[in-house]
Amino acid sequence: AQRVTQPEKLLSVFKGAPVELKCNYSYSGSPELFWYVQYSRQRLQLLLRHISRESIKGFTADLNKGETSFHLKKPFAQEEDSAMYYCAPLWGDYKLSFGAGTTVTVRA
Amino acid sequence: SAVISQKPSRDICQRGTSLTIQCQVDSQVTMMFWYRQQPGQSLTLIATANQGSEATYESGFVIDKFPISRPNLTFSTLTVSNMSPEDSSIYLCSVAGTAAFNEQFFGPGTRLTVL
User: Fold this and answer.
1) Phi, psi dihedrals of residue A51, rounded to the nearest 5°
2) What is the pLDDT of residues A23-78, one digit of tens each?
3) Cα→Cα distances A33→A36, B17, B86, Å
4) Nearest to B104 among A52, A96, A100 (CB)
5) Distance between CA B29 and CA B57 in Å, rounded?
Protein backbone atom coordinates (compact mmCIF):
# COMPACT_ATOMS: atom_id res chain seq x y z
CA ALA A 1 0.00 0.00 0.00
CA GLN A 2 1.12 3.54 -0.68
CA ARG A 3 2.03 5.33 2.52
CA VAL A 4 3.88 8.41 3.74
CA THR A 5 5.14 8.74 7.31
CA GLN A 6 6.10 11.85 9.23
CA PRO A 7 7.17 10.45 12.60
CA GLU A 8 7.34 13.76 14.48
CA LYS A 9 4.02 15.39 15.26
CA LEU A 10 5.68 18.29 17.07
CA LEU A 11 9.14 19.77 16.72
CA SER A 12 10.44 22.62 18.84
CA VAL A 13 13.79 24.28 18.18
CA PHE A 14 15.55 27.46 19.18
CA LYS A 15 16.12 30.25 16.72
CA GLY A 16 19.38 29.72 14.87
CA ALA A 17 19.43 25.98 15.53
CA PRO A 18 19.22 23.42 12.74
CA VAL A 19 15.88 21.79 12.04
CA GLU A 20 15.14 18.53 10.26
CA LEU A 21 11.69 17.15 9.49
CA LYS A 22 11.60 13.49 8.61
CA CYS A 23 9.54 11.95 5.87
CA ASN A 24 9.55 8.35 4.69
CA TYR A 25 7.42 6.98 1.92
CA SER A 26 6.35 3.60 0.72
CA TYR A 27 5.24 3.71 -2.88
CA SER A 28 5.48 1.59 -5.94
CA GLY A 29 7.41 3.27 -8.72
CA SER A 30 9.06 6.64 -8.31
CA PRO A 31 6.66 9.28 -7.04
CA GLU A 32 7.30 12.96 -7.24
CA LEU A 33 7.77 14.37 -3.76
CA PHE A 34 6.74 17.70 -2.31
CA TRP A 35 6.78 19.57 0.96
CA TYR A 36 3.79 21.81 1.64
CA VAL A 37 3.62 24.37 4.45
CA GLN A 38 0.78 26.09 6.25
CA TYR A 39 1.60 29.20 8.25
CA SER A 40 -0.81 30.46 10.89
CA ARG A 41 -4.00 31.86 9.31
CA GLN A 42 -2.75 31.20 5.80
CA ARG A 43 -3.65 28.62 3.22
CA LEU A 44 -1.61 25.58 2.38
CA GLN A 45 1.17 26.35 -0.07
CA LEU A 46 4.00 24.59 -1.83
CA LEU A 47 7.40 24.87 -0.16
CA LEU A 48 9.63 22.47 -2.10
CA ARG A 49 9.55 19.88 -4.86
CA HIS A 50 12.30 17.35 -5.23
CA ILE A 51 12.40 17.48 -8.99
CA SER A 52 13.55 21.10 -9.11
CA ARG A 53 16.23 20.76 -6.43
CA GLU A 54 15.57 24.30 -5.22
CA SER A 55 16.35 25.88 -1.89
CA ILE A 56 13.33 27.83 -0.69
CA LYS A 57 13.51 30.05 2.41
CA GLY A 58 16.72 28.27 3.32
CA PHE A 59 15.07 24.83 3.27
CA THR A 60 16.38 21.92 1.26
CA ALA A 61 15.19 18.35 0.86
CA ASP A 62 17.08 15.44 -0.59
CA LEU A 63 15.36 12.46 -2.07
CA ASN A 64 17.02 9.24 -0.93
CA LYS A 65 15.53 6.46 -3.01
CA GLY A 66 17.49 3.78 -1.17
CA GLU A 67 16.02 4.79 2.17
CA THR A 68 12.78 6.03 0.58
CA SER A 69 13.12 9.27 2.49
CA PHE A 70 12.64 12.94 1.68
CA HIS A 71 13.72 14.79 4.83
CA LEU A 72 13.39 18.57 5.01
CA LYS A 73 16.28 20.53 6.49
CA LYS A 74 17.26 24.05 7.36
CA PRO A 75 20.61 24.87 9.01
CA PHE A 76 19.44 27.93 10.93
CA ALA A 77 15.77 28.08 11.92
CA GLN A 78 13.98 31.44 12.11
CA GLU A 79 10.88 32.38 14.07
CA GLU A 80 8.94 32.84 10.85
CA ASP A 81 9.51 29.15 10.09
CA SER A 82 6.98 28.22 12.76
CA ALA A 83 4.25 26.41 10.82
CA MET A 84 2.73 23.06 9.95
CA TYR A 85 4.72 21.09 7.37
CA TYR A 86 3.36 18.27 5.23
CA CYS A 87 5.32 15.79 3.17
CA ALA A 88 3.29 14.83 0.09
CA PRO A 89 4.13 12.27 -2.58
CA LEU A 90 2.35 12.74 -5.89
CA TRP A 91 0.90 9.68 -7.57
CA GLY A 92 -1.19 9.23 -10.69
CA ASP A 93 -3.03 12.16 -12.28
CA TYR A 94 -1.79 14.87 -9.95
CA LYS A 95 -3.07 13.13 -6.80
CA LEU A 96 -1.30 14.16 -3.61
CA SER A 97 -1.12 11.94 -0.55
CA PHE A 98 -0.36 13.90 2.61
CA GLY A 99 1.59 12.81 5.62
CA ALA A 100 0.24 13.47 9.09
CA GLY A 101 2.15 16.73 9.31
CA THR A 102 4.75 18.16 11.68
CA THR A 103 4.12 21.31 13.68
CA VAL A 104 7.33 23.28 14.00
CA THR A 105 7.76 25.89 16.72
CA VAL A 106 10.85 28.07 16.62
CA ARG A 107 11.55 29.73 19.96
CA ALA A 108 13.49 32.95 20.39
CA SER B 1 -0.28 30.62 -10.06
CA ALA B 2 -4.02 30.33 -9.57
CA VAL B 3 -6.17 32.28 -7.12
CA ILE B 4 -8.86 30.18 -5.52
CA SER B 5 -11.82 31.28 -3.45
CA GLN B 6 -14.25 29.16 -1.49
CA LYS B 7 -17.72 29.91 -0.18
CA PRO B 8 -18.74 29.78 2.57
CA SER B 9 -15.60 30.21 4.64
CA ARG B 10 -17.34 28.56 7.56
CA ASP B 11 -20.75 27.28 8.58
CA ILE B 12 -22.54 25.64 11.45
CA CYS B 13 -25.21 23.17 10.39
CA GLN B 14 -27.72 20.85 11.95
CA ARG B 15 -27.43 17.12 11.52
CA GLY B 16 -29.46 15.68 8.68
CA THR B 17 -29.11 18.78 6.51
CA SER B 18 -26.86 19.34 3.49
CA LEU B 19 -24.34 22.04 2.65
CA THR B 20 -22.94 22.97 -0.73
CA ILE B 21 -19.44 24.45 -0.88
CA GLN B 22 -18.33 26.44 -3.89
CA CYS B 23 -14.84 26.69 -5.35
CA GLN B 24 -14.01 29.41 -7.87
CA VAL B 25 -10.70 29.78 -9.71
CA ASP B 26 -9.51 32.91 -11.49
CA SER B 27 -8.30 30.99 -14.54
CA GLN B 28 -9.12 27.80 -16.40
CA VAL B 29 -7.51 24.76 -14.82
CA THR B 30 -7.13 21.18 -15.88
CA MET B 31 -7.59 19.44 -12.56
CA MET B 32 -9.71 20.26 -9.53
CA PHE B 33 -9.77 18.29 -6.31
CA TRP B 34 -11.65 18.21 -3.02
CA TYR B 35 -9.95 17.32 0.25
CA ARG B 36 -11.17 16.86 3.79
CA GLN B 37 -9.17 17.68 6.90
CA GLN B 38 -10.78 16.30 10.02
CA PRO B 39 -9.89 17.88 13.39
CA GLY B 40 -6.28 17.11 14.27
CA GLN B 41 -5.81 15.05 11.12
CA SER B 42 -4.03 15.42 7.82
CA LEU B 43 -5.65 16.06 4.46
CA THR B 44 -7.48 13.24 2.73
CA LEU B 45 -8.44 13.36 -0.93
CA ILE B 46 -12.19 12.97 -1.41
CA ALA B 47 -12.45 13.10 -5.18
CA THR B 48 -11.26 14.56 -8.46
CA ALA B 49 -13.83 16.89 -10.00
CA ASN B 50 -14.05 16.17 -13.72
CA GLN B 51 -15.40 18.75 -16.12
CA GLY B 52 -18.31 17.37 -18.07
CA SER B 53 -18.40 13.99 -16.38
CA GLU B 54 -18.90 12.34 -13.01
CA ALA B 55 -16.31 12.93 -10.32
CA THR B 56 -13.77 10.24 -9.50
CA TYR B 57 -14.04 9.26 -5.83
CA GLU B 58 -11.35 7.84 -3.61
CA SER B 59 -11.83 4.79 -1.47
CA GLY B 60 -14.19 5.50 1.40
CA PHE B 61 -16.05 8.33 -0.31
CA VAL B 62 -19.26 7.94 -2.32
CA ILE B 63 -21.25 10.14 -4.63
CA ASP B 64 -24.45 9.92 -2.58
CA LYS B 65 -22.70 11.45 0.42
CA PHE B 66 -20.44 13.91 -1.42
CA PRO B 67 -21.98 14.85 -4.77
CA ILE B 68 -19.66 17.03 -6.84
CA SER B 69 -20.33 19.19 -9.83
CA ARG B 70 -17.92 20.82 -12.26
CA PRO B 71 -19.82 22.68 -14.95
CA ASN B 72 -16.77 24.42 -16.41
CA LEU B 73 -12.99 24.78 -16.05
CA THR B 74 -13.12 27.44 -13.32
CA PHE B 75 -15.84 26.29 -10.92
CA SER B 76 -16.80 23.28 -8.82
CA THR B 77 -19.12 22.49 -5.93
CA LEU B 78 -18.99 19.87 -3.22
CA THR B 79 -22.13 18.98 -1.31
CA VAL B 80 -21.95 17.30 2.07
CA SER B 81 -25.25 15.45 2.33
CA ASN B 82 -27.27 14.25 5.31
CA MET B 83 -24.64 15.60 7.66
CA SER B 84 -23.65 14.13 10.99
CA PRO B 85 -21.19 15.49 13.59
CA GLU B 86 -18.51 13.21 12.08
CA ASP B 87 -18.60 15.41 8.98
CA SER B 88 -17.25 18.35 10.96
CA SER B 89 -14.04 19.15 9.09
CA ILE B 90 -12.28 21.65 6.93
CA TYR B 91 -13.05 21.05 3.26
CA LEU B 92 -10.46 22.29 0.76
CA CYS B 93 -10.51 22.75 -2.94
CA SER B 94 -7.27 22.53 -4.92
CA VAL B 95 -6.29 22.91 -8.55
CA ALA B 96 -3.44 21.70 -10.71
CA GLY B 97 -2.29 22.05 -14.27
CA THR B 98 -1.53 25.76 -14.29
CA ALA B 99 2.11 25.60 -13.33
CA ALA B 100 5.15 23.48 -13.90
CA PHE B 101 6.13 20.44 -11.89
CA ASN B 102 2.61 19.36 -10.95
CA GLU B 103 2.22 22.06 -8.34
CA GLN B 104 -1.19 22.23 -6.67
CA PHE B 105 -2.76 25.41 -5.37
CA PHE B 106 -5.16 25.31 -2.48
CA GLY B 107 -8.19 27.32 -1.54
CA PRO B 108 -8.60 28.84 1.93
CA GLY B 109 -10.90 26.03 3.07
CA THR B 110 -14.43 25.83 4.43
CA ARG B 111 -14.73 25.07 8.12
CA LEU B 112 -17.86 23.02 8.73
CA THR B 113 -19.29 22.28 12.15
CA VAL B 114 -22.23 19.90 12.42
CA LEU B 115 -24.25 19.97 15.61
Assistant:
1) -70, -25
2) 999 877 778 889 999 999 999 999 988 877 778 899 999 888 888 899 999 999 99
3) 10, 39, 31
4) A96
5) 19
